[in-house]
Amino acid sequence: MLLRLQDHRVGHHDGASRNSSSVSVWPQPQPQVKVKKLSKGKKHYSGIYGRLLALAAHALAEVPASAWRPCADQRNWEPDEGKNGYIMVTANGGINQQCVAICNAVVVAHLLNATLVVPKFMYSSVWKDASVRLVKELPEELKSLDLEAIGSVVTDIDVMKESKPSFYLKNILPILLQKRVVHFVGFGNRLAFDPIPFQLQTIIFSPHAVSAIIARNVRAAKPSRYLALHLRFEIDMVAHSLCEFGGGEDQRQELEAFRQIHFPALTELEKTGKLPSPAMLRSEGLCPLTPEEAVLLLAALGFNRKTQIYVAGAQIYGGKSRLAALSNLYPNLVTKEYLLSPTELEPFMNFSSQLAALDFIVCTAADAFAMTDSGSQLSSLVSGYRIYYGGGRMPTIRPNKRRLADIFVKNNTIEWKVFEQRVRKAVRQTKHVQSRPKGRSVYRYPRCKECMCRTD
């Protein structure tokens, strides 16, 4: 798939050789953008950003190396013997949550001097980390135990989010020593990043971890010239945001129905009237960028119509009609469904985590990566990976949605040149080289003394 992205001739072509749809869509799309051809090849866009999109189309028609380097492999500690017992982990969530859970499990196993049993969904070949003793399965004398009956099953309810190492030493180690085995069920975001000792933080970015395997694959696929765009605009994100996206009453009713089924607690909270209004949420930058807003951002930053764009994500809310602006302004638009034939995709179908892994690999290898929501797991892990392995040559566009909201609200009056200037200023003034703030994820902010070193 990466090799096909190197072919600059890739573009929209006969669907007989590829899937007919370039992007997976939600089954019942709500039309958002209509494109009408006018005289002399001009196009008119209707919808919430119709005027700005028309200006963007017209504009496109006309037209620092980092001092940080990876050093987590410079460790000064010896691997443990795993003699205190066995730890099993069943990671929940998608591929990105699973990656975080697995890395945290390695840290906890080392902290407790335990032997880690490889999670069942992982292939044993990726486990090359020398910091922890690893086995494929429990020894025979422990296999027959009813772990739940003996109190060895620990769920997310039992472990607070981002628990400190002291919690595991005080509460989990006694169970491990007495029962010889602990099974973590869930284990999503159950390890704090502060205070984690230096020698434990470095485990996370071991050169032999899963991320290094991906790194080798990425390097083998270079050089490539494309922008990867993660559109986090699936219906779950749209509904949970409580924002409005120009679809009127029909869209509000559809999203409310989705919330009642999937986010009942949020629906009950809505009834109290204590939640911010959609307008307030948007002004505070709490709404995910729409595909139209992503188009305007890219156009303002100078990406021209020839830019080859890989779109990560699936089931974009609103379907093809919601993507009309993106596909019309950027015709060299591809996805995994477009690059791979149905036969090539077949082994991954019905495995959402594996499909997400394809997006992750392509996004990490891109010349530039743009996200529309900095809080998503995929975007966070991709940007952290690019910081760690990129050497300052793998830029990530992380929009300041609050500042952009103030610019977008003037879509009916602002001139294109002024819009370009304001967007570029907002991006330019966003801090690019940022050390990890206290308590924040090292997966997203690897620039810290535990993981990276400065060369200046």
Automatic annotation (TrEMBL):
User: Where does the protein end up?
Assistant: Membrane
Bilayer topology: Single-pass type II membrane protein
Q: Where is this region: Disordered?
A: 1-30
Q: Which Pfam families match?
A: O-FucT
- What pathway does the annotation place this protein in? Glycan metabolism
Question: Which residues fall in a compositionally biased region of kind Basic and acidic residues?
Answer: 1-16
Stretches with biased composition (Low complexity): 20-30
The UniProt keywords, alphabetically, are: Carbohydrate metabolism, Fucose metabolism, Glycoprotein, Glycosyltransferase, Membrane, Transferase, Transmembrane, Transmembrane helix
Q: Which InterPro entries match?
A: FucosylTrfase_pln, GDP-Fuc_O-FucTrfase, GT106_glycosyltransferase
Protein family: Belongs to the glycosyltransferase GT106 family.
Q: Which PANTHER family match?
A: O-FUCOSYLTRANSFERASE 2, O-FUCOSYLTRANSFERASE 2-RELATED
Q: What is this protein called?
A: O-fucosyltransferase family protein
Q: Which organism is it from?
A: Hibiscus sabdariffa (roselle)
